[in-house]
User: Fold this.
Amino acid sequence: MKLPPGTAPVRAEYLLPVNNVVSAPDDDAAEGTTKPARSDRHSSARDDDDNRDSRSGPTRGKLTKEQKKAQRGANKGRRFGKVRDELDLCWRVANGANCEYGAEQCKFSHDIPAYLAVKQQDIRIPDTTEISDTLSVVPDFTKVAKPHPEHPSIDLNTFCPIFKETGECRYGFKCRFLGGHVQTDASGNLTLVKDEEKKARTAVSSQELNFVGGDVQKQLRSKKYPFPISDAYLREMQQNDAQTNSTSKINSGAVVLAGPEQNMDVDTTASEKPARVPTSAAEELIENRIGGSLLASTSDTPDVPVRFAEKKRLHWSGKTYLAPLTTVGNLPFRQLCVKYGADITCGEMGLANSFLAGSKEEWSLVRRHPSEKIFGVQVAGNKPSTLVPTAEVIAKEFAGNIDFVDLNCGCPIDLVFKSGSGSALLDTPGKLGKILIGMNKALGDIPVTVKLRTGVKDGKNTAHKTMPKAVEWGTSCITLHGRSRQQRYTRLADWDYIKECVEAVRAREAEEDLPPIPIFGGGDCYSSQDYWSNVEKTGVDGVMLGRGALIKPWLFTEVKERREWDISARERLDLIRTYAEYGINHFGSDTAGVNTARRYLCEALSFQYRYIPIGVLEHLPARINDRAPAFRGRDELETLLASGNSSDWIKISEMFLGPAPESWTFTPKHKSNSVESQG
Assistant:
């Protein structure tokens, strides 16, 4: 069978006898959606019935233009409601403590026997050896369950991932794995088990880091959080701008160009520039701490580069770097990638405005697992007055637990771009310079890194000009995605241009006698061969892995071992099981936590199903943008893992997280996963 161009070269014996290629997910159309949409656990099946071509015979399978359009793009504004217990038990009582409100005044139940009587059955995470390669349905594990004699919902044969990891489950009786940490005392009462030795042993290795206290969030929400460094920097920046504008008006012989870039390129010599005197004791103290004037560098030219002597040098050459990924780049996924070889990880993009508003959800993005050896926080914003204070809070609250802060100058989605954030900053280098200088001041010795694109518009690349300036503004690492904002994923990444930008930075470093900073490239890397050929061809210190890592998290292992891994379906199932455990540890082992973990597991599977096993390909390397023809795996399990039907992802989640509640909903990001391919 001759396959159309751009189709993965699957060997003939694995091709299914259908006439069409499986639709490629539209990553562009699925970015940045905000409108609400209908969401239903069984929407895949219903949508399939609604959209199925009613024609039969030889015309069956041919879709009209309207039908094809309906199956592309994004399910907009996906919403995921929380699933709760039928009877809500008081948290304090659930953990064996006394509730200060008492049973009469507390709005939650204090009746543990009544709660257990209606509680859902305990979940048991099976070993993957208990799942057959030829089994494409959820196996029945009730045969190995050991129900508690008085409380049949408790399975004494299960184990709790949180208790296994830390020696204590913080969810107590609300845990869906309760049988793993409960016992009956001499009086016949159920009591919670704690392993004090394990608690002490794992206190450092298992406890997540970077929690923001309620007092800090309250100060931020009420605008009472102190920002001494940011306030002084922003005040001096305003004074500098006012002085520049005044000088420009007096000098009638000069032509002054309006715009943010003007202030960054003013050449003021030492004889023309009066010595600055700190306006307060606080500013003097701050300047002594950080070394020099807060804004002394905002008017520096390329001839007088900014020096940040106190910054930690980043020695990242040869290290693997997982890209910051919105939604799917959560802590459990990063932890999984670390297990498979990722050296550098970065939290999901957080918005500066939301950080400063004390958003609980936004501050949860800075959480770090102890296994993340080099960890950073990525922030997005559109002006110094929000980004610099955000950097100051991060430095003050997480000193010692943040290795770098990354400024997002690459996000292409409309919602971010139209606010002046993300890739919009590429068109305002003057403002970008002020942001980077201010963030550097506010962060003390924590390095600032930048992730950017080639430019905003196709054919108008600007990164080769921006990147050398970013070095002078104190950037400690630069990552360049080889596409413009306008291009998105429509064409291959331009690695030749990445090489040009690397050379421009190295030339500026040599010219100004600056220490070299690590530079990472990004775009379309999907194999060890892709990775190392791009490193050798362009001179980058490494390649940031994004979509490639989402589709195959074991890509880090391939890169480090310089091989292509023909991973088996059983090994992939082990990976999924591990992710499920990590998800329970992070999101929680109660009903709400389990189903939140299920949601993010399905999000992960929405990328991992795109993987085409090496063993079914005609030749290597596989290419990330190749479309998959309809194919079968080497066994039923591999075929199931290759399914693009979201109902199959739910089925896989049920192997490790138990049956999904009827009220639980999941709407896939891509419309193409909501319906079965017509064939």
